[in-house]
Design goal:
Blueprint (H helix, E strand, L loop, with lengths): L8 H4 L2 H26 L4 H19 L8 H5 L11 H17 L3 H9 L3 H9 L4 H14 L8 H21 L7 H9 L4 H9 L4 H12 L39 H5 L1 E3 H6 L10 H12 L5 E5 L6 H13 L11 E5 L1 H5 L4 H18 L2 E5 L3 H9 L5 H10 L5 E5 L1 H8 L3 H4 L3 E4 L5 H19 L2 E2 L1 H14 L7 H16 L4 E2 L1 H12 L8 H8 L1 H6 L6 H15 L10 E6 L6 H12 L6 E5 L9 H5 L9 H8 L3 E6 L6 H13 L1 E3 L5 E3 L3 E7 L3 H9 L4 H11 L6 H4 L4 E4 L5 H23 L2 E4 L1 H11 L9 H18 L8 E7 L2 E7 L4
Length: about 850
């Protein structure tokens, strides 16, 4: 590819020379205008014709007064001098800034920035970013005054500076779909120039390179004269370019034929593109290039786009139609019509014979016409017709089109349906190039929302800041996984707009997006408020109200949550991953439950798996979905639905090694790909795996007087009997739970009885008092050297809950009484105080 360069002869002129050139040019236009009117008034027909010709020339120049010599489209295919694509406004600003820099011997970029800040489109972009252009102007003026003189800087020095800037501006103009290089593109070029003085200004006002590049689009479509906006009605209007558009039903060689039956059961996308109704596309450049290359190749010119709903498959097809009418495709696709088959209309209300007849007629028409690119949305539906229409498979009927090397066919399908219906038909699939369409990036989604915002503002009469757009994309990508970008971000933005309209607000800020997202997800997205901060600071104390001992475990999980809510947790992984190791009944699962209720709001936010149920190799399909796409994964589905949650993996060591290997990626990257290729994020989860492995070793070491923290290093070495070292090293912490003593078991019993007492008071209005003798006996009965405190709940159920239930049903105790439980002479004794209702 030829190197881009900037060569503008007018900048090489002296001030005097430039003045004379302008005088001559203006004089020539004035003389031509006078001559045109003079000849038009002449009685001589030839002179009147000449006058009309001159008038048309003047009108043409007036219509193109804001245009450069060449459009960017023309320049991309020919001359590489980017000066030719600069609009007159760009030239004048560059020229003025150059002359001023030469006189002042100051930083050219700062002088250029100061001039650009006077333009409305730049001011509009800054307004979207919440920055006052007057403040930026004052700062730039101060910097220009304070910077040292650039000694020995001549015109060549500044021209090199200009060349590097304009080349970058030209690239930005291509990226944003401009026809010419405008001053706003120069502003973007300054933001990525690397000039330390410019960087200082942009950093001061928090103007990042990428945000400037996207916000400047608002300047392009901003206000014109007297507040009139030039916003199109639909997204397709944003790519309208009156040049190089072709509208043909018949190809240039006039060999195409009409297609009446096809027209009845299809939509001509090239016609819609001509009407500016479709064709807008952000992202998917690589996939688009593969698609066009496939459709234009001599053999098997067929492609199938595979992606989830909202991935952009249909938008790519519409953009292909736009590229076709612009002739922005390889020559084999010139003059083609992109026609989308209407499958529901084709199949509905038709007998098997009628369906076959329609498909055969369409097949004959497409082959005879020779200028059709056939689009089949939801291609898998044609495979289903065998079941729905008495065994006839529509795919076999249209197979002649697909195998015809002259008829490009592009289909769409979803990953699950592709695996179920299409992948098995190798004879059919062999005719296609499979192209996977993934979710667009956050940057691309932001740009998409910028254009959508222009339409939404027009509809709702609301000013939407760029920060609100940015926040919509970031939050949607992180927390809303049921829908892909940009759809998830657009939904969130629309909900915030509706809420703002209901509250009669005129401006939508980033904070409004956050509030809506928090309401929907119940995830704390904003910075921790005073109440939450106090809760986090006192988390250990709150947990210990419901959990006895295990201080090291409580401190570790509390610390990880404080780091997460302070924004200091590790990026790219879960909030934290813990391995709780210890005997049964010592509080491993209980701590997970308590933590879920305190921090995640409800125990419903716990995703729990008994890993002993996943011991064979086949069980991996239950975890992430079956390979044929028929069943989804329990883990991936659960996290997609509840992204802010605690995941408890009980008896982790019993899982099959292949399942344990899945967690290598989860613990490290916070991501897991399911059977359909969807990536599920674990960034907002705490993962706790429990294990009873080497419980005897832990018990022995504790009895020797060693603390839990001291045992962890030795235990890590022993755990390699069950887990790979790389998995062990990926845990945030391995926490040893020690066996509970008799006194600690008594404390646990007190907590559990407190739960019963609270339930009794709330539901029946009865107070329960269990004295120390009864509490000690309950703790003794409920303690097991093998199962720890686990039997306590059953003991309390048998000796307290059941007894109370019978007394309530017999009306022995009623609302308002106090029930006292004691242990006397080897049996529990019940005493009732007070008069019941």
């Amino acid at each position: 590819m030829e190197k881009l360069y900037y060569k503008e002869p007018r900048l090489s002129l002296s001030a005097t020379g430039e003045f004379f050139v302008r005088v001559i040019a203006y004089s020539a236009y004035a003389g031509t205008t006078i001559a045109a009117f003079f000849f038009l008034l002449s009685e001589n027909a030839s002179e009147r014709s000449l006058g009309l010709l001159l008038l048309l020339f003047i009108i043409d120049r007036a219509m193109h007064v804001r245009h450069g010599e060449r459009t960017i489209y023309e320049l991309k295919k020919g001359d590489k001098n980017v000066a030719r694509s600069c609009s007159p406004q760009s030239y004048h600003i560059l020229n003025y800034s150059l002359r001023k820099a030469l006189v002042l011997k100051k930083n050219f970029n700062l002088i250029l920035l100061l001039e650009l800040l006077g333009r409305r489109d730049i001011q509009e972009a800054l307004r979207r970013l919440g920055v006052k252009h007057n403040d930026v102007q004052k700062k730039v003026e101060t910097l220009i005054e304070s910077t040292v003189l650039i000694e020995g800087a001549g015109k060549e020095y500044y021209l090199k500076n200009i060349e590097s800037l304009v080349v970058v501006a030209f690239q930005n103009a291509i990226d944003t779909g401009e026809q010419y290089t405008h001053p706003r593109n120069l502003f973007v070029a300054l933001s990525i120039s690397g000039d330390s003085a410019i960087a200082k200004v942009f950093d001061l006002f928090n103007l990042e390179e990428e945000t400037v590049q996207e916000a400047i689009i608002f300047g392009k479509w901003g206000r014109m004269f007297f507040g009139i906006r030039r916003i199109p009605a639909v997204l397709g209007g944003f790519i309208h370019n009156p040049t190089h558009l072709r509208k043909r039903v018949i190809n240039r060689s006039w060999t195409a034929r009409p297609t009446p039956v096809l027209d009845q059961f299809s939509t001509d996308l090239t016609e819609l593109a001509n009407q500016e109704k479709v064709g807008f596309l952000i992202g998917h450049n690589e996939e688009m290039n593969v698609l066009i290359h496939t459709l234009s190749r001599p053999g098997k010119p067929n492609a199938i786009l595979i992606g989830e709903p909202g991935a952009g498959k249909t938008s790519m097809i519409a953009h292909l139609a736009y590229r076709l009418i612009k002739d922005d495709v390889p020559s084999p696709l010139y003059d083609k019509r992109l026609v989308s088959l209407d499958i529901p209309a084709l199949i509905s209300n038709s007998t098997p014979e009628v369906l076959v007849g329609r498909l055969k007629e369409i097949t004959d028409e497409v082959i005879l016409a020779g200028n059709i690119v056939l689009h089949i949305p939801e291609l898998h539906d044609l495979f289903r017709t065998a079941n729905n229409k008495g065994g006839i498979n529509a795919i076999d009927v249209i197979l002649p089109i697909i195998k015809n090397q002259a008829i490009p066919v592009v289909g769409e399908s979803f990953p699950r349906e592709f695996k179920t219906y299409i992948e098995a038909r190798t004879d059919f699939l062999d005719q296609f190039e499979s192209i996977t369409i993934n979710e667009i990036s956050e940057k691309e989604a932001i740009r998409f929302l910028v254009y959508q915002t222009l339409l939404l503002e027009k509809q709702y009469k609301l000013f939407i800041t760029f920060r609100a757009i940015e926040q919509s994309v970031k939050i949607a990508h992180r927390y809303f996984h049921n829908k892909l970008l940009p759809g998830s971000a657009l939904d969130l933005l629309k909900q915030a707009i509706i809420a703002a309209k209901d509250e009669r607000r005129k401006i939508l800020e980033a904070e409004d997006i956050t509030k809506i997202a928090e309401t929907q997800t119940r995830i704390p997205i904003e910075k921790a408020g005073d109440d939450e901060a106090q809760k986090l600071l006192n988390l250990e104390e709150m947990i210990h109200k419901k959990l006895v001992n295990q201080s090291h475990a409580v401190s570790s999980v509390s610390r990880s949550l404080r780091e997460y809510r302070s924004g200091l947790s590790r990026k790219g992984g879960p909030i934290a991953t813990f391995l709780f190791v210890g005997p049964t009944g010592v509080g491993k699962t209980e701590l997970a439950k308590i933590l879920t209720k305190i921090q995640f709001g409800s125990q419903d936010s716990m995703i729990r798996f008994d890993m002993s149920e996943y011991q064979d190799k086949q069980s991996i399909s239950r975890f992430i979905g079956s390979s044929n796409g028929e069943s989804s994964g329990a883990l991936t589905d659960a996290v997609s639905k509840t992204p802010y949650s605690l995941i408890l993996l009980d008896e982790f060591e019993k899982a099959h090694p292949d399942i344990l290997n899945l967690f290598l990626q989860v613990f490290d990257d916070g991501r897991l790909t399911d059977n359909l290729g969807r990536v599920v994020g674990f960034e907002n989860t705490i993962i706790i795996a429990t294990s009873n492995a080497h419980s005897e070793f832990i018990k022995t070491e504790i009895e020797k007087g060693r603390k839990s923290g001291e045992i962890a290093d030795d235990l890590k070495k022993k755990l390699t009997d069950y887990f790979k070292p790389e998995l062990i090293n990926r845990f945030s912490d391995i926490i040893v739970f020690r066996t509970l003593t008799q006194d600690e078991t008594k404390q646990v019993a007190k907590l559990l009885i407190g739960e019963v007492s609270g339930t009794l008071r709330e539901s029946q209005g009865i107070d329960l008092v269990v004295d120390d003798s009864a509490l000690s006996e309950i703790a003794r009965i409920g303690y097991s050297p093998v199962f720890g405190a686990r039997p306590l709940r059953q003991t309390i159920s048998e000796n307290i809950r059941s007894v109370l239930a019978e007394k309530i049903l017999r009306r022995e105790i009623t609302r308002g009484v106090v029930v006292i439980m004691s242990f006397v002479d080897s049996s529990f004794v019940w005493k009732i105080d007070g008069d019941g209702v």
